[in-house]
Structure formats: structure tokens, C-alpha cells
Please model this.
Amino acid sequence: MVSLEMSDRKKIGLGLTGFGVFFSFLGIIFFFDKGLIAMGNILFMSGVALTIGLRSCIQFFMKPSNFKGTVSFGLGFLLVIIGWPVIGMMAEAYGFIVLFSGFWPTLAVFLQKVPIIGWLFQQPFVRSFIERFRGKRVPV
Model:
């Protein structure tokens, strides 16, 4: 049987990732406050690096298939830092979607098993939409 224990490094990484998403959300709620969004980006990236490891993180972002997403996310981060948070967040959102598009099918399968929202994801029109994108890219 596989143990689901997590190391302290991974726990801290998940916490930092969660705080990064939270601060980015607060930055958007407070009319695109560039300080909160920048702090959220830094926490999110450091959380991802701690969760999956620095080497895996660098390999993931430097893969040729993820180049567009990496450049877009980095450019969006730079735009947020220099004071254009709305345009920067749009660039980051595009980069996030491109980078993590391989994980969407896995997330959809997980959501189908959740008791309350699983019913929505098992509807024929949602299921056909999900099936269209399954298996196009392999994450990490």
C-alpha cells in the first residue's frame, strides 16, 4: 500500500501556493492592486517550486511545449510589477491556461468523483466537452 504522507517541504509548498492564490484573488477584488497580485505571484511560484521540487519545476517551465505559457506568465508578472496589473493578469491567465492545460483532464476526473459537483460534471454536455480535450497533452 502506498503511503500518502507528505514531507514538511511539500506541506509548506502547498501552503505557499494556497496563500499565493489567495493574495492574487485579493489583489483582483481590490481593483487590481499590483502589490497584492505581485505578492500572490511570488508566493504561488515559490509554493510550486517547493511542492514539486526545484529541478522538476525548472524542467516543467523550460520544456519546449510549455515555452509559450512560460513566456506569457513571465511577461504578465513583469507587467504587474511595472504597474499594468490588468494587462499583466490577462497575460498571466493565458500563460496559466497554456502551462497547466495538461492537468485539466485529471482535474475533471477528480471533480466527477466529488459528491455534489460530480453530478454536474457527469452530465452529457459537460462530459462531451471534457472528452474532447482528454489526452491531448501529458503534464510534467
In short: DSSP finds eight helices and no strands in the chain. The CA atoms of residues 25 and 37 lie 8 Å apart. The helical segments are 8-29, 34-52, 54-62, 67-82, 85-99, 104-113, 118-121, 124-133. The two ends are 24 Å apart (CA to CA).
